[in-house]
Structures are given as C-alpha cells and as structure tokens.
Model the fold of this input.
Amino acid sequence: MANEPAPNDQPGTEQPQDIYSDTVIEHVRNPRNVGDDPYPDGFAIITGPCGDTMGMWLRVKGDVIDRITFWTDGCGPSIACGSMATEMTTGKRVAQALRITQDDIIHRLGGLPEESQHCALLAANTVKEAVRDYISLKNEPWKKAYRDRK
Ligand code: FES
Done:
C-alpha cells in the first residue's frame, strides 16, 4: 500500500494549490488594479502568441507611475501576472518600470509552472509598451490630441 499514489497524485486530480503558489492563487482571486482608464498618459494592448490579450493604462505624476490598471481575457496565471505587474509598477520611476522583466514577475509570484511562464512575458511586455507609449506622447504631445479624437 505504501506505493499506492495519494488521491491527488492521480492524473487530472491536481488542485490549484498543487500547481500554483499561494501568491498566484491570491492574485487570481483578488486581482489588483483591474480596469481601463479613459484618460491615460500611456497605454498598450498586446496579444501574445497564445492568442490572449492584455491591456494596461497608466498615469504619471512627475516622473513616477502614479496609477496603472490592467485587463486581460487570458488565463488565471495571466490575471495574476497582470495584477502583480501593476503592483510592481505603481510608484516606480518611468525608467525603472521599463526594466521590469518576465523573471521579476515570476519571482514575485513565487514561481509559475513552465507552461504559464509566457503569461508573465505578456504582462512584462504590456508594461513596457504602455511606458513607451507614455514616453512617445511626452516627446510628441501632438500625438495625444490625434489619438484622443479616434
Ligand atoms: S495562456 Fe495566454 S496569457 Fe496565459
């Protein structure tokens, strides 16, 4: 009997807590900073290779990201990654936000299974693109007037 697998060792019987860290599960259940923003200082909407999409909208005060929100139609891990990415970005200087990586997000979430690691890349890339959009609009403000009319 000692070699008989426990009930949760049967294929297809894994529970979320067997696969994901407590931090991931908590962010999926209570995602932070969800929603869009009609008047962002910068935003990005990206579709990853898996076909899931993530959007982020940020506001900047001085040189600091004052507020960032996200939305995704992706999987549970993508919700956790978007949520964690917004927490990691809030209060950061613009240049610091550009340096947030996939690995940083995975680390802060307490790890992700291999098959979910691209969800963190989608979140990191969306942060970067939203920040780049802010920088682009700051350097060429006429683009904002044009974009807001669309
Ligand atoms: S599977 Fe597409 S973002 Fe997670």
Residues 20-140 form a domain with the Sufe protein. Chain: A fold (CATH 3.90.1010.10). DSSP finds seven helices and three strands in the chain. Residues 7 and 13 are 7 Å apart (CA to CA).
